[in-house]
Design goal:
This protein is mainly beta. It is built from two helices and 15 strands.
Amino acid sequence: MANLGYLFKLFASFSLGISDPGTAEDSQLDLDYNGFKDLITDPLLTGWTRSAFDSDEPVAATNPWHFNPDKRLLTFTGTPTGEMLRLDEPPSDYILHVDWRLDQTDPEASDGGVFVRMGERGQAIAPFDRDAFGCLFTEVRREGEPIRQSLRTKETVNRLKPTGEWNEFEIRAEDKTVALWVNGKTTSTWTECPIRFGPLALVCGRVPIMFRRVKLKTLVSLS
């Protein structure tokens, strides 16, 4: 997870300003529940695949992912190197809603994030790290080399809540656009995403994290 940590911590120098958060916007899930489906429904995590962040490394011998169907709560207990839980075949266009909570953070590495439109040409990343201010990171590969960019430009409010509180992410992937809504506001939008199809994943670092309301609504493709 060292490279992942570097990616998110690279922009830590920007995370100093706090201002009035303004009027909150409802999430699409709260505005219209119809069409949203639970992506995690059973302890076997049917439809999902565990993998190490570094594809050359094996996953932990003991499964760190645990789903409580009564509480509808997914818990990642932490591993020395981190891990991802990948949904391999999401639709091309969708709204993904994820609630997540960290009760501790890792000062030496990334805490992870939600990855969407994952592919050989790049991906979009919604980090859990407070240094990212709740804004998207983009990664585009050119000639095999990743070009990474934070979409935090005008956002002066850290939309992420303090450690120990629940955060809400909503990612809208539609045509070439990927937009991130965090705790009441759309923070960043990528309008030229080169990947139309690709897995999505919950990527976790070395510390425990909890998830609830992991839901997806399929959108009608624009092209």
